[in-house]
């Protein structure tokens, strides 16, 4: 082969290779072996970088210097996975889940209606929550609501509010929401810790809880299942909702809120996934809690509002607690077979 | 004009950081914000050390745009991905999603909360009036509107970093690669930014149909 | 490069985790808008007081009517950060430098810039500049007026002159002065009456200048950055062009892509090495052994250019003999390079001709520097590569005008143009200056001292500290004027601090005097003055790039704050010293905006033109240079030649030698000694500067080896009036020329007539046509010899290749070689690592200026030491750890560890751009308020050791020793 | 019987919903060229420098691109 044809051939090959690479395909120059890593290659350096960059393209870690992202990844692939998850399942399923829970509650309300007191209120009040407890509750609840609303704005606002409000107004709202979210977050986390410490003792397992489970709290039957200060439904909310989900959402939120502590992009992607999934579950559960605490049950809100509940309410919903509050003794081991004394005005 | 793109030729890039300071210079980018940076991989490994300059690649299917909760991004007719700082809330999602680590967040406010996101604009400013002070303050100079290309590429010490219309850029790169006998053919980041196999129909068409420049004494 | 570009906070200028996404602490926003609006008033920490007459206040009105008034003007200048000579277009609006555009037209850089060049506009901010004159009083920096400063400084200097003589002062000039300023400074110091002046070139390429000039004529880069496009093989040794001269890589990579082979030999795998075809790791300081190894292969394989050597080289046989000594095992023992690699270098260089070599401070900064560079010259001579396009010795200079400052500036052993300091030289220059020779003689302490080379900048500290009876002048140095140079670029920092303490007076004239200021203030309470000088963007003037091209800078902005251009300050002092009339005899004075007298720079260049015949600084009139700057687009980026337009036929920047008067229209010389071109087209041949005969051998070039079209097609001596008469060409001179030329030679004939007749009429080279000298018989090692560094980790090699004998009075000082080497023969036991230093791309020189530029400082926030993973592991050091680098001098510096395979296990590398920390202590409190650079770090030279080149007093920085321990 | 049908219906709708999650809905609202969210982002050639002369802008930009190709000024 004379040098001219060789040059032509090489040029042709090169053209092919460039074309392929510009179009994003894998490099076509398989003929040139990638340089060996070993000391044997110290002197020779061919110009085929295919091997060097293959890993980069896959998003695998490379020894990158300087202002590389802290994760030392030149082209990260996990961002794309995060995007798929966030924009896909989390937004779509999460959104429908919240809507679904809401509809379910509405349906339940329609079917079951408000759980009314059976007896007549006596007018005699029992202190259910002292002022510290109520403050803890409302601070936490306030934070929760702010966080939930602002969080929802950030996840779904683009699809729900933006088309209605336009970019300028929504941009402003989202900015408020984001800053509110970031500022409230740490407070929420601290409140959660305080709240858990405050109420954990009354939320431990008690034998009578088994009965509550068996009867599903009497929610459907309308039967009153005796309980201590908190029934098993409340305990579930306390442990799974406030404690576990609260801490998960709180901690993952802090990871996102204080980005300067050395976490890398991948950490934040993960934290965000955990945060948003946790928050959606938390919000779903909270809907139930809010429902039962407000429109779902007559006078349920009194305890949190004023700190005092009527004896009738106490007897019907927290019979054992009522008994003890009235100075009578109930065995801790009572599994529900003990029938509490009739309420004063019970018909 | 079809589509604006960046291309960094790793056979040429010497990590001189000229692109970085050119960008700082042109847009008065504050300390701590790196719209562009140069990275070196396999540092000190003989035969495998490569440097390249990275910034926003103005992706075809831009992940930042997809995850933005306020939809502050938009793409110009030339394919430049820009954003509106009035709508940006500084949530950082674009930074999580971006393959290239392009979005930057200057510190502002309490707790070191993120300020409005800042990134390479392909020297195309933003949605403010072209060449206005408001535009400069938020996004930097608008060189495209002055008929100029991004300063990082224009000032690149070895002409490793190329910017401009995809067809022009591809032609320059191709001519160069052919001259050096097919070495260093990778357009790093292109498949990530502009799609696998078919980033842009026009690019591919251009790459396939543009005439090969005939030169005397080329690669011999 | 993790440490190198820290993304952790360091010092007050804390940066941030670039990518953990968020907490960016921006110390001070420097945006164009707030700059325009609040101008100097918002200078933040830098502000000394609000009442200062900030030059920056003027811009305030620029913003208020940003659109209407103030059209954008373009001013063309040249980057001040390295010798490549990248052109800059500055957009100026109402006196404010608002934009920087690439100059695509420039044939040198085609618009390209490195990090430094792309950020020069920051000079228009100058936030960390010295703003007013200052003096150290009671250990505190106090502001004073220019008038008071000039008065106090000149009175003190005059008192010292009175008491101890003019030689009790030392004047450190600058390689960042324009040609005109550098030239005026040499004149200024001469009129003061001393040769005690020097500048950066001493410590960067003095060995090159001496070694190369003594080999074949001129001590400069023979070809050009552009010409390297024609090379088929490029051998870098002791050069890291990718970081030190990044834009040169535009031409080099262009060559590589066209098929040129690139070899890099270096103790460190540099960014340049990353772009090479072959990388060879050699032991620092063993260059000569490696080069001889290469030459042995060349001779053994018959790859030497025998005809070329026969016709154009003297003494190559001796070199051949010496190279035969360097057998494969010896080379391996000394350099650590196996024979196959040595062979590969030889074969690549020999079979890919023209091949060229590149060297920088990696070769020059050794106690054997002069020999190393001559060995490189000999390699190129053996291959017949000199005087050939694509060949030559491409010696990249460092600072933007270190070439020009060397050519016409403050050298202790020469007047402008390498005329030397013998009586004849003085008479020549006195006639150019229009002053009386006897008057100048009277300014000196004695005629002996007038013709005795001064102390070098590398040794001024010994001029202060050495016992008086041992120094070769009357008094020790009592006062030092640092006029545009960094103290941290000289070795033996610990001794320098002592010297600063011992001085009576220290004056610093600089836009960024702070490193000197802080060092001095840390040991003194009184007697230090700082005078704010303007940068080269605040004045005009010419500068000479490494390829010898001159470019004219336009003034971009008015001097910031109270700063004044150097030549204006010189004139102000000349007035106080009483020689202002003589100083500007042929130079017009202009008034600046504050009413100061400013020597006209065009006139100054014309005076340089009228006197500098030797190296052809005579044809570059300001008019011609300005025309070139305007019509850059007409010059080829390949040949540097303009084929059309008003500069047709010229080479860009009239690369010196541009012989004769401007009217002769010599086009400049793109490649030195190129016989394939007519002398009037930039051709030439080796210089006849060393006589016509040596030991019975003719030194004149062989027949047929004259430049193209020469009427004398053989070797001939340099032209003078007698040769002209002998040849019968005398009558071709005009009557006026005859009068001027009578009794003169081509170098001293101020009419330029001899040059005109020789070149234009007869195609002859005025400096004659001789052979290059492979053997420089007037040097200590006529045949370059490998000698171990004074501080070596190899005692066995010290026995085999010992250094020179001590010297008694060498540049006025006793200088030790053998004594030191023997005393520290076993230094390797406690200090087992070879310590070497070099450049980073973000910073320049001492770094004070570039470390004050936030756009650059952000990229490089820590001083560091590169060490091999194995070396680090042995010491329990991890990447980014703080470590102490301990030197045999007792110094220790605290720096970050950068663990990288870039260096071998026996070597560590430190960058030399840092200052502002001293042995673990931050000197921030010793800086004048607001004038501290953003990034401060330990200076590598705080830990460097004794050691000087045996010809030029170049300092040894590249091969010394240290130990590293975890801090 | 009824409950079975209900269950089937539920399963079908649930799977639809689940499948829906796998599709990314368009994230960016439609925009008119040159106009963005009420603000006019003038196209580069519509600014003060070119006043709508797209052809000149394009040729200027092309010329500018050429400056990045040193081969133009450094022929072999």
UniProtKB/TrEMBL annotation, chain A:
Q: A GO BP term, please?
A: formate oxidation
* Membrane topology summary: Multi-pass membrane protein
List residues of the Cytochrome b561 bacterial/Ni-hydrogenase domain.
128-306
What is this protein's name?
Formate dehydrogenase subunit gamma
**Coiled-coil segments:** none
* NCBIfam families noted in UniProt: formate-DH-gamm (TIGR01583)
Its GO CC terms? formate dehydrogenase complex; plasma membrane
Q: Enumerate the cofactors the protein uses.
A: heme
**Keyword terms, alphabetized:** Cell membrane, Electron transport, Heme, Iron, Membrane, Metal-binding, Signal, Transmembrane, Transmembrane helix, Transport
The family note in this entry says: Belongs to the formate dehydrogenase gamma subunit family.
Organism of origin: Zoogloea oleivorans
GO molecular function annotations of the record = electron transfer activity; formate dehydrogenase (NAD+) activity; formate dehydrogenase (quinone) activity; metal ion binding
Report the Pfam families cross-referenced here. Ni_hydr_CYTB
TrEMBL record, chain B:
Oxidoreductase listed as a keyword: no
Q: Name one Pfam family in it.
A: Fer4_11
Cofactor(s), by name: [4Fe-4S] cluster
Q: Which domain of life is it from?
A: Bacteria
**One Gene Ontology term of the molecular function aspect:** 4 iron, 4 sulfur cluster binding
SUPFAM superfamilies registered for this protein in UniProt: 4Fe-4S ferredoxins (SSF54862)
Record region (Disordered): 197-220
Residue stretches making up the 4Fe-4S ferredoxin-type domain: 4-34, 47-78, 79-108
Keywords, A to Z, come to: 4Fe-4S, Electron transport, Iron, Iron-sulfur, Metal-binding, Transport
Q: Which InterPro entries match?
A: 4Fe4S_Fe-S-bd, 4Fe4S_Fe_S_CS, 7Fe_ferredoxin, ET_IronSulfur_Cluster-Binding
Does the keyword field hold Iron-sulfur?
A: yes
What is the name of the protein in this document?
4Fe-4S dicluster domain-containing protein
Q: Which organism is it from?
A: Zoogloea oleivorans
Q: What is the lineage of its organism?
A: Bacteria, Pseudomonadati, Pseudomonadota, Betaproteobacteria, Rhodocyclales
UniProtKB/TrEMBL annotation, chain C:
Q: Which biological process annotations from GO are given for this protein?
A: anaerobic respiration
Q: Where is this region: Disordered?
A: 1-24
Q: Which UniProt keywords apply?
A: 4Fe-4S, Iron, Iron-sulfur, Metal-binding, Molybdenum, Oxidoreductase, Signal
**Coiled-coil segments:** none
4Fe-4S Mo/W bis-MGD-type domain ranges (all copies):
72-128
Give the required cofactors: Mo-bis(molybdopterin guanine dinucleotide); [4Fe-4S] cluster
Name the principal localization, coarsely classed: other
Compositionally biased intervals (Polar residues): 8-24
Which GO CC terms are listed, alphabetically? cell envelope
Q: Where in the cell is it found?
A: Cell envelope
What is the annotated signal peptide range for this record?
Answer: none
The record, for InterPro entries, names: Asp_de-COase-like_dom_sf (IPR009010), MoPterin_dinucl-bd_dom (IPR006657), Mopterin_OxRdtase (IPR006656), Mopterin_OxRdtase_4Fe-4S_dom (IPR006963), TAT_signal (IPR006311), TAT_signal_bac_arc (IPR019546)
| MF (Gene Ontology) | 4 iron, 4 sulfur cluster binding; electron transfer activity; molybdenum ion binding; molybdopterin cofactor binding; oxidoreductase activity
In the record, the note on similarity to other proteins reads: Belongs to the prokaryotic molybdopterin-containing oxidoreductase family.
Q: Which NCBIfam families match?
A: TAT_signal_seq (TIGR01409)
Task: Give the protein name, as stated in the record.
Answer: Twin-arginine translocation signal domain-containing protein
What is the species of this protein?
Zoogloea oleivorans
UniProtKB/TrEMBL annotation, chain D:
Span list, region Disordered: 39-76
Q: Where is the composition biased (Basic and acidic residues)?
A: 51-63
From the Swiss-Prot or TrEMBL record, give the protein name. Answer: Lipoprotein
């Amino acid at each position: 082969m004379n040098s001219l044809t060789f040059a032509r051939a090489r040029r042709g090959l090169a053209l092919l290779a460039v074309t392929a690479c510009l179009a994003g395909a894998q490099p076509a120059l398989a003929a040139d072996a990638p340089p060996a890593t070993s000391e044997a290659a110290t002197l020779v350096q061919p110009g085929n970088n295919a091997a060097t960059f293959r890993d980069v393209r896959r998003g695998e870690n490379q020894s990158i210097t300087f202002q590389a992202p802290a994760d030392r990844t030149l082209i990260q692939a996990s961002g794309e996975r995060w995007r798929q998850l966030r924009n896909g399942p989390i937004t779509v399923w999460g959104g429908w889940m919240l809507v679904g829970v809401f509809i379910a509650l509405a349906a339940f309300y329609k079917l079951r209606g408000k759980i009314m007191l059976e007896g007549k209120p006596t007018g005699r009040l029992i202190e259910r929550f002292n002022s510290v407890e109520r403050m803890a509750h409302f601070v936490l609840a306030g934070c929760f609501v702010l966080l939930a609303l602002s969080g929802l704005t950030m996840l779904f606002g683009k699809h729900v509010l933006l088309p209605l409000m336009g970019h300028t107004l929504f941009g402003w709202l989202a900015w408020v929401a984001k800053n509110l979210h970031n500022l409230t977050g740490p407070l929420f986390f601290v409140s959660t810790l305080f709240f858990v410490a405050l109420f954990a003792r009354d939320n431990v397992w008690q034998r009578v809880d088994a009965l509550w489970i068996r009867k599903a709290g009497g929610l459907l039957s309308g039967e009153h299942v005796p309980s201590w200060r908190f029934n098993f439904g409340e305990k579930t909310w306390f442990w799974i909702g406030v404690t576990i989900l609260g801490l998960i959402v709180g901690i993952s939120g802090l990871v996102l809120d204080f980005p300067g502590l050395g976490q890398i992009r991948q950490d934040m992607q993960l934290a965000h996934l955990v945060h948003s999934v946790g928050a959606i579950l938390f919000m779903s559960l909270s809907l139930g809690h809010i429902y039962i605490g407000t429109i779902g049950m007559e006078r349920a809100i009194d305890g949190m509002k004023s700190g005092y509940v009527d004896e009738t309410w106490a007897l019907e919903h927290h019979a054992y607690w009522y008994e003890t509050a009235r100075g009578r003794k109930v065995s801790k081991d009572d599994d529900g077979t003990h029938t509490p004394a009739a309420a004063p005005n019970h018909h | 004009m079809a589509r604006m793109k960046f291309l960094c030729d790793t056979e040429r890039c010497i990590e001189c950081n000229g692109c970085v300071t050119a960008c700082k210079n042109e847009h008065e980018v504050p300390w701590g914000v790196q719209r562009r940076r140069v990275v070196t991989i396999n540092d000190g490994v003989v035969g495998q050390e490569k440097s390249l300059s990275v910034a926003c690649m103005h992706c075809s299917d831009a992940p930042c745009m997809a995850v933005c909760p306020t939809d502050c991004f938009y793409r110009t007719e030339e394919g430049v991905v820009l954003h509106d700082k009035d709508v940006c809330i500084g949530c950082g999602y674009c930074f999580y999603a971006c393959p290239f680590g392009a979005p930057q967040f200057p510190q502002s406010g309490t707790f070191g909360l993120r300020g409005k996101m800042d990134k390479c604009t392909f020297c195309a400013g933003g949605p403010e009036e072209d060449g206005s002070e408001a535009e400069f303050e938020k996004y930097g100079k608008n060189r495209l509107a002055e008929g100029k290309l991004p300063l990082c590429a224009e000032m690149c010490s070895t002409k490793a970093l190329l910017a401009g219309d995809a067809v022009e850029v591809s032609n320059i790169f191709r001519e160069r690669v052919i001259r050096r006998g097919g070495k260093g053919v990778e357009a790093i980041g292109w498949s990530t930014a502009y799609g696998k196999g078919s980033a842009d129909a026009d690019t591919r068409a251009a790459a396939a149909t543009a005439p090969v420049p005939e030169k005397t004494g080329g690669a011999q | 490069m993790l440490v190198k570009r820290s993304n952790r906070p360091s010092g007050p200028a804390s940066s941030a985790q670039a990518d953990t996404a968020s907490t960016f602490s921006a110390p001070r926003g420097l945006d164009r808008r707030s700059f325009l609006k609040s101008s100097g008033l918002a200078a933040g920490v830098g502000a000394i007081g609000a009442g200062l007459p900030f030059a920056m206040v003027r811009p305030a009105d620029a913003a208020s009517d940003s659109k209407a008034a103030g059209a954008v003007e373009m001013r063309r200048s040249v980057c001040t950060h390295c010798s490549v000579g990248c052109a800059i277009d500055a957009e100026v609006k109402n006196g404010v430098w608002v934009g920087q555009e690439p100059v695509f037209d420039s044939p040198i850089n085609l618009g390209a810039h490195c990090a430094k060049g792309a950020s020069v506009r920051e000079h228009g901010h100058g936030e960390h500049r010295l703003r007013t004159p200052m003096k150290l009083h009671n250990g505190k920096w106090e502001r004073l007026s220019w008038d008071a400063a000039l008065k106090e400084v000149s009175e003190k200097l005059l008192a010292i002159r009175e008491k101890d003589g003019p030689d009790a002062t030392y004047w450190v000039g600058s390689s960042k002065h324009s040609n005109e300023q550098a030239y005026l400074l040499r004149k200024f110091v001469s009129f003061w009456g001393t040769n005690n002046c020097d500048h950066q070139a001493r410590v960067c390429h003095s060995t090159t200048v001496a070694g190369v000039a003594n080999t074949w004529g001129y001590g400069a880069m023979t070809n050009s950055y552009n010409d390297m496009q024609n090379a088929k093989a490029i051998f870098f040794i002791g050069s890291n062009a990718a970081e030190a001269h990044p834009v040169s890589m535009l031409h080099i990579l262009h060559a590589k892509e066209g098929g040129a082979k690139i070899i890099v030999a270096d103790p460190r795998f540099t960014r340049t090495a990353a772009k090479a075809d072959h990388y060879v790791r050699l032991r620092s300081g063993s260059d000569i052994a490696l080069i001889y190894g290469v030459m042995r292969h060349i001779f053994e394989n018959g790859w030497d250019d025998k005809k070329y050597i026969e016709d154009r080289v003297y003494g190559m046989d001796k070199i051949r003999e010496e190279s035969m000594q360097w057998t494969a095992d010896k080379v391996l023992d000394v350099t650590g390079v196996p024979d196959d690699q040595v062979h590969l270098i030889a074969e690549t260089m020999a079979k890919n001709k023209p091949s060229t070599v590149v060297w920088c401070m990696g070769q020059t900064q050794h106690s054997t520097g002069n020999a190393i560079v001559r060995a490189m010259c000999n390699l190129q001579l053996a291959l017949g590569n000199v005087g050939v396009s694509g060949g030559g010795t491409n010696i990249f200079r460092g600072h933007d005008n270190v070439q020009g400052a060397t050519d016409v500036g403050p050298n202790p052993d020469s007047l402008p143009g390498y005329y030397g300091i013998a009586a004849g030289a003085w008479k020549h220059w006195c006639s150019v200056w229009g002053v009386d020779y006897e008057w100048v003689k009277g300014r000196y302490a004695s005629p002996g001292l007038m013709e005795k080379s001064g102390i070098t900048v590398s040794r001024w500290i010994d001029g202060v500290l050495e016992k008086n009876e041992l120094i070769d002048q009357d008094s020790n140095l009592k006062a030092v004027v640092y006029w545009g140079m960094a103290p941290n670029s000289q070795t033996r920092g610990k001794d320098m601090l002592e010297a600063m303490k011992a001085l009576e007076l220290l004056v610093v004239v600089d836009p960024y005097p702070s490193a000197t200021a802080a060092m001095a203030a840390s040991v003194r309470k009184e007697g230090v003055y700082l005078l704010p000088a303007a940068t080269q963007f605040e004045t005009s003037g010419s500068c000479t790039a490494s390829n010898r091209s001159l470019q004219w800078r336009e003034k971009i902005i008015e001097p910031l704050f109270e700063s004044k251009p150097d030549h204006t300050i010189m004139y102000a002092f000349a007035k106080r010293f009483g020689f202002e009339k003589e100083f500007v005899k042929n130079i017009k004075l202009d008034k600046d905006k504050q009413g100061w007298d400013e020597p006209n720079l065009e006139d100054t260049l014309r005076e340089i033109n009228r006197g500098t015949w030797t190296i052809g600084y005579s044809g570059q009139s300001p008019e011609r240079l300005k025309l070139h700057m305007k019509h850059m687009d007409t010059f080829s980026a390949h040949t540097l030649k303009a084929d059309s337009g008003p500069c047709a036929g010229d080479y860009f920047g009239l690369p010196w030698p541009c012989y004769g008067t401007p009217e002769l229209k010599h086009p400049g010389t793109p490649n030195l000694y190129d016989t394939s071109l007519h002398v009037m087209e930039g051709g030439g041949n080796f210089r006849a500067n060393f006589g016509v005969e040596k030991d019975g051998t003719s030194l004149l070039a062989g027949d047929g080896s004259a430049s193209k079209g020469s009427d004398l097609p053989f070797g001939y001596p340099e032209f003078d009036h007698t040769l002209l008469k002998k040849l019968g060409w005398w009558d071709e001179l005009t009557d006026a020329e005859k009068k001027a030329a009578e009794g003169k030679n081509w170098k001293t004939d101020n009419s330029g007539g001899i040059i005109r007749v020789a070149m234009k009429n007869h195609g002859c080279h005025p400096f004659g046509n001789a052979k290059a000298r492979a053997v420089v018989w007037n040097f200590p090692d006529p045949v370059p010899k490998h000698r171990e560094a004074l501080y070596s980790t190899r005692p066995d090699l010290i026995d085999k290749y010992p250094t020179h004998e001590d010297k008694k009075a060498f540049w006025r000082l006793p200088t030790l070689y053998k004594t030191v080497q023997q005393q520290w023969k076993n230094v390797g036991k406690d200090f087992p690592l070879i310590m070497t230093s070099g450049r980073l791309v973000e910073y320049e020189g001492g770094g004070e200026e570039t470390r004050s530029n936030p756009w650059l400082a952000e990229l490089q926030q820590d001083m560091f030491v590169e060490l091999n993973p194995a070396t680090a592991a042995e010491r329990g050091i991890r990447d980014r750890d703080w470590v102490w680098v301990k030197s045999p001098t007792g110094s220790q510096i605290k720096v970050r560890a950068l663990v990288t395979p870039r260096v071998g296990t026996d070597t560590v590398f430190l960058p030399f751009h840092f200052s502002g920390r001293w042995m673990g202590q931050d000197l921030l409190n010793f800086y004048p308020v607001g004038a501290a650079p953003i990034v401060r770090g330990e200076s590598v030279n705080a830990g460097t050791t004794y050691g000087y080149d045996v010809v030029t007093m170049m300092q040894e920085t590249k091969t010394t020793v240290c130990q590293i321990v975890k801090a | 019987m009824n409950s079975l049908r209900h269950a089937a219906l539920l399963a079908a709708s649930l799977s639809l919903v689940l499948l829906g999650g796998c599709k990314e809905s368009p994230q960016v609202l439609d925009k008119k060229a040159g106009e963005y969210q009420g603000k006019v982002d003038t196209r580069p050639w519509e600014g003060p420098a070119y006043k709508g002369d797209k052809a000149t802008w394009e040729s200027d930009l092309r010329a500018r691109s050429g400056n990045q190709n040193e081969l133009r000024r450094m022929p072999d």
